[in-house]
Batch of 2 targets.
Target 1
Amino acid sequence: MTSSDSARTPGGAVVLDGNRLRDEIVVRLAADVAAAGSPPVCLATVLVGDDGPSQRYVRNKHVQAAKAGLQSRNEILPASAGQAQVEDVVGRLAADPTVHGILVQSPLPAGDDPRYDEEAVLRLIPGDKDVDGLTTESMGRLMRGLPGLVGCTPLGVLRLLERYDIPTAGRRAVVIGRSMLVGLPLTVLLARKGIDATVTLAHSRSGDVTALCREADIVVGAAGVARMITASHVKPGATVIDVGISRTEAGIVGDVDFDAVQAVAGAITPMPGGTGPMTIACLLENTLTAARLQGAFPGL
Amino acid sequence: MTSSDSARTPGGAVVLDGNRLRDEIVVRLAADVAAAGSPPVCLATVLVGDDGPSQRYVRNKHVQAAKAGLQSRNEILPASAGQAQVEDVVGRLAADPTVHGILVQSPLPAGDDPRYDEEAVLRLIPGDKDVDGLTTESMGRLMRGLPGLVGCTPLGVLRLLERYDIPTAGRRAVVIGRSMLVGLPLTVLLARKGIDATVTLAHSRSGDVTALCREADIVVGAAGVARMITASHVKPGATVIDVGISRTEAGIVGDVDFDAVQAVAGAITPMPGGTGPMTIACLLENTLTAARLQGAFPGL
């Protein structure tokens, strides 16, 4: 993408448009599926309980899956389902050769009774079907550089950097937040051969990270601390990516103080419309990758 | 350890004495085993071929294991052994409840015939017996923060930092080298809750890392580039740890230019006698941890 056809913020930063890239990826995936003779590549989601936001997330995943030419299936269990019932459903999907990707919508319902052992559920998902990239197997493959599935959110960050031609090799990236979902895998991913960033992993015990961030070419906020990244954290021209989510009285807020930072940054993700849609796009990409890892359809 | 009873370099840096700490750890492990009634905790090594250095490494591991009160067993296969034979031996050790830790000495003999699939061999080692911390399962557990076994070399670095009271929380650490054996797991380990360093992972594509290192409280050389870390890389008083190994005409050389750096650093590992002996100490520690993970002996 040349900078001329990218939207800009009032301060002149390139907008890293996650909605646009998600749509591009969906179109590309649909073309890939069609070119392979439209085999029934299937994503299965498992939804336990009736949490409103979880239901919406899952519904959105199915809508986008259909646009990408993917089949999908939603296994719904009541909040009263026990551990054994959840494990039974996931185990059946794991064994089912017509299912290529499995996603257990998290969080599983909280409360003391029933209380779920999420780890035990994840263990049932084979590495080649783990489209969330969350299991021990997937994390281990990422560390060992083996073929496998990478978490949708970190992969989405990488796809944005690639799409907007943000250089990474030899550049300094700072990832703020050491979560298993984002910070840790993204650190490993950005440091990988071929991506080659020099990556700093900062977190809540890092103290003041302003100076650290100011040296970085790429800053990723994944701490879940509302608007912690201000203009003073950002080197002029740097790329700033917001993965943080905080629920405040003013609604959902990211880690980046967008209005201030956009005036300094060279490129920035909007919130919403940045990394959020990319997470879904990468879930669909992972579903196709999963089918390929399984050798499910020749020609795919 | 108070600084008063630590050896110092001519320039005044505390010597991070790996031989001494290894001996302390061996004594402690032997006491732990004795206190549990001397159960037969067993480390099994698998040695394929007749490479001289590999034979010496394995022999040393058995000598130290005996000092730590551990049983050990060495499975020796000829260089002509095929993949199936190696897998058969490892598979039997995996299934044997009297074996608590399994280490396959690497590298397996090179050459086109036989050519080993090391990944397939590693896959046979259960996570709870993986005393090298090398398998996909162990790497995944490290990422997910689950109980498991961490690679001996990164764990050895951590044990040195702990033993010499080098503060890590909120401090900046730079790890140079992104290997699966050292750099990647050490980055994750140092950033973990409870250790809490702000970690930068640098590597061969990072270009000049002098400025980066100069900001660090802890510098770990794990790149395998002879004497790449010079005095100009080190902030006065910083801790410098050498994990690098290069074979030069002058013998085995580390990543750290010891003579120059010791005059600037606050603490430094010698080479030899720094991280090398710690790797063996942590192999033995891991063997005990493995037996505990397996619940092999009550009271251990």
Note: The CA atoms of residues 6 and 268 of chain A lie 12 Å apart.
Target 2
Amino acid sequence: MHFTAETSSNGVVERDFTVGEVPGVLWSPASGSGRAPLVLMAHSGGQHKRAPGILARAHRFVTGCGFHVAAIDAPGHGDRPRTAADEQHIAVLQQAQAAAEPIGPIIAGLHTYLAERAVPEWQATLDAVQELPAIGAEGPVGFWGIMQGTGIGVPLTAVEPRISAAVFGCLGHESLTEAAAQITVPIEFLLQWDDELVDRRSGLALFDAFASKEKTLHANAGGHGEVPRFEVDSATRFFARHLDRVGASSA
Amino acid sequence: MHFTAETSSNGVVERDFTVGEVPGVLWSPASGSGRAPLVLMAHSGGQHKRAPGILARAHRFVTGCGFHVAAIDAPGHGDRPRTAADEQHIAVLQQAQAAAEPIGPIIAGLHTYLAERAVPEWQATLDAVQELPAIGAEGPVGFWGIMQGTGIGVPLTAVEPRISAAVFGCLGHESLTEAAAQITVPIEFLLQWDDELVDRRSGLALFDAFASKEKTLHANAGGHGEVPRFEVDSATRFFARHLDRVGASSA
């Protein structure tokens, strides 16, 4: 793990890093004392590790809970080069969009394709970040990712026992059912009731598939991109309840 | 409106009252200054105005938000006598339960029967409570009621323009669809994903029926009686967001 840059503002230290060829960002409390839990954040399709929705939530998790937050660019996203195969997948998606064809199966195939590389990349990132003294290998780890972040995060969480709580959502496809059925950690699942891209029933079916005894669906009126702002607070409290062994009641 | 008793503990003043023949309780901040919003709370079937689930939430709304909270006994419940017709409805329900027949339609019929009396009783209670200087006729009013509280609260909220936000849930029946479609205020709707009494699809259909632009479904794993404790916090924040024009961000 190599740190390449460091800045600090509003109580949050932001450090760019690379693990192998994968670039990431680690946000940490400026005045941290002792070890603190870690939240992994996976961005949406076409986005990157420092997308506004990632950045805003990362700052909340750091300042609201004292957690560390790590994000990396997905394969072919952000600062990473696209392979010929990446370009081919994107071209297929763009052709379907241009032809107004159903893109659900294409999106699902793209996520499966990305997750094959992204899951081991996340595991290597977690290995590296947990070597930092302020985080450590024993601390609790959460995962946050909606849309493509769920397409990668569900298969990741299914095989990664270090993740002990996860926020997913705004996605649903039968290609994820098998992995979801292997997940038993607490889940908060977002669903947009009037989502123009994700079929409501497929989102409900994915929520249903998680084997978790504690799982909560938050379905909000509105379209795909209209997740309400108060869900940021809700995710903050969800992680505080499940990751913070001390201060959960104050969050 | 007649006050019949007053006690005070942990920062909450509790006053028993009657409006006509309907007995109720009003919980208020002990150190209130100026006017504060009001939350109406309707108990579940077979329960009463001071049931543990009502009492705990009422105290949270008072101490957490500085709100006033009013609860009344539903017809034939709590301190109120049962009429012969009440007894007849209960006998029909008990016979169906004993015979292990589907009770959904019977419950829906019972709620319709109760709401005919309970809706005007709630409106008379609201008239009376709003005459108190600490509440007033101009302040925001919320409604909280799940199960039978939803069976009464949905028709009440449909016809009562003073209610500006409501928490419903753990119920679903097509008999409520028409009233739900008249409701446009923000809604938080609870649903138990593994509810043994309420069909999941009927709960989702009732949530779908609300005309509200801002509505959120909170579906939690677990049976009818297993609404998680953290939903008390969520309802508190929901009312803080929608009723408290000043201090919402601190809740």
Note: Residues 59 and 149 of chain A are 18 Å apart (CA to CA).
